[in-house]
Amino acid sequence: MNRTVDASYLRHSNLLKSIGMIVALMLTSCATNKYRMYSGPCLSKDEVSFLHTVPLESSGMASILVHSFDGKEVTLNFRNHTIEVEFLPGRHIITVDSGERKKRATSSSKSFIPIQFDSKPGHIYSIAWNDLASTESRYGWNLCIRDETSDGVIVAEGAPRDSSGIDTWIAVLKDENPEFRREAALVVGEIKDQSVAGAMIAALKDEDPWVRLYAARALGKIKDPRAIDALAAALKDENQKIRGEAALSLGEIKDPRVVDALIAALEDEDPFVRLYAARALGKTKDPRAIDALTAALKDKDRRVLGAAAVALGEIKDPHVVDVLIAALKDEDPWVRLYAARALGKLKDPRAIDSLTAALKDKNRKVLGEAALALGEIKDQRVVDVLIAAFKDKDPWVRSYAARALGKLKDPRAIDSLTAALKDKNRKVRDVAALALGEIKDRRAVGPLIETLQDESVLRVNVTNALRQITGETYGDDIVRWQIWWNENKETFLGPK
Questions:
Q1: What does the pLDDT look like over 172-231, one tens digit per residue?
Q2: Is-contact 390 421, C-beta < 8 A?
Q3: Domain span at 154
């Protein structure tokens, strides 16, 4: 009897504890964090608006950033809290974080969904899911703002994926608050539709530099030729970042009219503007840019001269090859390096002799680029040049020769590469294994298995090469590889 009473008492006691814990959790979860988004004395409920959120941990959302009417903002944590934000009536933009919480939520980040709406005094609003959204969010989320005071009617939806729901955001581009105009420029700029080009062209004249920058960037995504004149004018903007974005965007528009403006931008006082102008000229692939880009090889900023060399490599013109071959002899090693890289892109056999000579360059980075460039040129002479490079005293030359031979995938290199598996330099051995895996010649299997005994070699390179050639996955188990090889060698290699 006592045992029964004791057991009953314990069950009753545990139940009371459980109920107590549940009540405590409910009280905790119902706690509301309140925020006031305006300065001065508190106003009555009829004079302000409210935004309510509830814990949405299961949704994966983490935070929300609210822009207030008078320019204030606050980042709120969604999880485990009910939140009430009190703010002045008027226009507001909020951004909902669909990922991890971040320090500053803006619509420039793909994990944030911007929503803008106009609030009324005395009304209560909430963030909610919207399964019947008229426009699908560009992030795949259907979020909305509901007016709970008006039977939960939807008053705003998340930024749209296309131009069908963009009119309200275009209107915000004229808002007196620059913060709002910036958000609007980001949202509209993501549409990538020529129907919004006019709004973005107008935004290039906004007094706020961030709005102008986002507009210039957006016009590069839209690629509308109507924006050429406005972007060309933006190359003279007082802000160098805007000039740079304008240059990049002009390079995205396939129109011969952009070339002259970009050539002029190569003379800009700011190196980043010149850098972006060079990159943009490379995208145009217009031969008229050759002389200006050749001159830019002498730019005092090595990033600019590098971009100029790479841009020349994008222009498929016979004259470019001569320019870059001459640049291989420039006194500046950076010019020689980028010239070699550009010649690799052009893949012109006329550069073979000059690139071969560059394998003796005093600068290791230059000779490395020369070797890689040779590996891009499909010419039988190149294989002989790179095989001969294995006799060079410099391990840097030998390792880059191995990398280049791997790109060429020429079976004639197998003997030299398998011999390189025993090179005294570990880097050369590692790269030789990678190259053999790229060529996939069965004659390399035996030497690769033997190389597994070398504890100093990077075994993952060897095992990956073996897997690429044989299709087997024995990892670095040398015993299993040896057994498999003994059983399959004759049939795998075939008749001699």
A1: 888 888 888 888 898 888 888 888 999 999 999 999 999 999 999 999 999 999 999 999
A2: no
A3: 32-161
**Counting Cβ atoms within 10 Å, is residue 110 exposed (0-12), middle (13-18) or buried (19+)?**
exposed
| Among the listed residues 356, 348, 283, the one whose alpha carbon sits nearest the alpha carbon of residue 321 | 348
- Considering the domain architecture, whether residues 95 and 26 belong to the same structural domain is answered as no
Q: Are 21 and 115 in a shared domain?
A: no
* Structural contact between residues 113 and 190, judged by C-beta atoms closer than 8 angstroms: no
> 455 and 392, same structural domain?
yes
What are 130-162's pLDDT values in tens digits? 665 444 444 445 678 889 999 888 888 877 766
Same domain, 18 and 56: no
Identify which has the larger pLDDT, 250 or 78. 250
Residue 32 DSSP one-character state: E
Q: 161, 176, 205: which is the final residue of a domain? A: 161
Q: Is residue 240 included in any domain, yes or no?
A: no
Neighbours of 193 (CB within 10 A): 15
What predicted TM-score, i.e. pTM, was given to this entire model?
Answer: 0.72
408 plus 490 within the same structural domain: yes
Interatomic CA distance for residues 218 and 347, integer angstroms: 34
Write b or e for each residue in 419-448: b if 16 or more Cβ atoms lie within 10 A of its Cβ, otherwise e. ebbebeeeebbbbbbbbbbbbebeebbebb
The CATH number of the domain where 394 resides is what? 1.25.10.10
Provide the pLDDT for residue 333. Answer: 93
Total number of domains in the chain: 3
Is 34 buried (19+), middle (13-18) or exposed (0-12) by CB count in 10 A? exposed
